[in-house]
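Problem: given the chain below (191 residues), write out its structure.
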Amino acid sequence: MSVEQFPEFRLGSVLATSFTGTLTERCGEPLERIPVPSRLVDWLAISGLAVDSCTESQLDHARELRESIHATATAVANQNPLPASAVRVINAYSTHGLASAILTTEGSRDWRLGSASVEDALSVIAADAISIVSGERDGRMALCASPTCRAAFFDTSRSRTRRWCDMNTCGNREKKARFLANKRKNSSPAG
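Solution.
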């Protein structure tokens, strides 16, 4: 019996954009990081939203929400009007779950899901998307500078000039490509 291998998750510090990062390389060869329901359960658990189980239908709903958040975040990053259909999806998911914000003794916010269902978890993700898109949180929406990635991320750096969704993947890949191109250019014989 072989163990199925799945791509690693890219986890960010912002729940909603980390969720959109479960589909990467959107402008290249897309890589689905939640290809089966059990992987969504894994991602939710890692993100502090543990659920009991997930069906194919719930996975489809999660992907619908993910793509709506990505479309909305992309519109904000490009300073375009928000897509009405994506806004409707985000609002619908935000209102369909039972979750409560909980203050930890360390002074941070955690979430308590009402029934440990995927719907509850998706409502938290949708609410997080609303908080970043609406400008409630300090930062700016941006798109990864990698031409194959173009992932949406929430830039909270001091200067708000971050270029990559993840420096360890997209940033390093782009810097390495630039380095190799310069090396080839400098090592080619002068004509």
